[in-house]
């Protein structure tokens, strides 16, 4: 059994209608049902995959998916393996669900380029808010190129170019960079960065922000995101 969550959103880009498609991969029937109810209340049409193999088969044949929600603990192909396989050919935003709340699980999820991490048990309302926020950011920034040191940042393409090499940004990494670029020359507090990037009020784990910053530094150079001790971060010139 598989499921697609589809919502048609009219955008103000000419007369184009954008179809947003979300894939839900969760083997717990109760959790699936709860997610489905709350998404339907927001106007989505909901069905779901209950294992990683069927989900991957569907994803590999459908390139128009806009977001994936995946549980880590799945029978057969688990969520991390599915995430790894999908990332080999797609930058589609992915929200990871898990009851494994240890730091290592979060670090592995983000290292495999997950865009968000939701701990179980979770608020269905909060999950819907995260879905909405990630979808808003899935085509996030209408901007050409930004130069930071000897790195070229293409936020609209989620790319970093440096010495002939290319690195890919997650949607959340692009949002963090966008906010730092908008405030270039100024110190951005951790609190303000979290509020601006996550867009709604919830208790973001400081380690999650630290992990995103760490991954960004690997992609745009350690020296280009400056830590201002006790204050926050500042973008290099």
Summarize this structure as a short list of keywords or feature phrases.
five-stranded mixed sheet; globular; 8 helices; alpha/beta; four-stranded antiparallel sheet; 237 residues
Q: Mean of residue pLDDT?
A: 79
User: Roughly how much helix do the residues carry, as a percent range?
Assistant: 25-40%
Terminal CA distance reads 51 Å
Low-confidence spans: pLDDT under 50, at least 5 residues? 1-19
Rounded to an integer in angstroms, the radius of gyration calculated over CA atoms is: 18 Å
Report the oligomer.
single chain
Order of helices and strands: EEHHEHEHEHEEEEHEHHEE
Query: Mind summarizing the main beta sheet?
Result: 5 strands, mixed
Spatial shape: globular
Structural class from helices and strands?
Answer: alpha/beta
- The count of DSSP E runs of length 2 or more, i.e. the number of strands, is 12
Number of helices: 8
How would you characterize the overall build of this protein?
It is a single chain. Helices cover 38% and strands 23% of the residues. The protein has eight helices and twelve strands. The relative contact order is 0.10. Mean pLDDT is 79; it is low at 1-19.
């Amino acid at each position: 059994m598989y499921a697609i969550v589809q919502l048609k959103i009219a955008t103000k880009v000419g007369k184009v209608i954008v179809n947003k498609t979300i894939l839900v991969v969760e083997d717990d029937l109760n959790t699936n049902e709860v997610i489905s109810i709350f998404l339907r209340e927001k106007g989505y049409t909901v069905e779901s995959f209950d294992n990683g193999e069927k989900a991957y088969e569907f994803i590999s044949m459908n390139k128009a998916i806009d977001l994936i929600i995946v549980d880590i603990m799945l029978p057969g192909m688990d969520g991390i393996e599915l995430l790894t396989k999908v990332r080999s050919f797609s930058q589609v935003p992915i929200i990871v669900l898990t009851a494994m709340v240890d730091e290592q699980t979060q670090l592995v999820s983000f290292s495999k380029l997950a865009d968000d991490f939701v701990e179980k048990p979770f608020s269905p309302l909060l999950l819907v808010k995260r879905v909405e926020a990630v979808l808003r950011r899935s085509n996030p920034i209408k901007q050409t190129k930004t130069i930071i040191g000897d790195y070229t940042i293409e936020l609209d393409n989620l790319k970093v170019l440096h010495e002939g090499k290319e690195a890919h940004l997650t949607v959340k990494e692009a949002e963090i960079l966008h906010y730092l670029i908008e405030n270039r020359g100024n110190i951005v507090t951790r609190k303000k960065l979290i509020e601006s990037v996550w867009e709604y009020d919830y208790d973001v784990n400081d380690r999650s922000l630290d992990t995103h910053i760490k991954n960004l530094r690997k992609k745009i150079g350690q020296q280009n995101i400056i830590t201002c001790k006790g204050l926050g971060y500042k973008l290099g010139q």
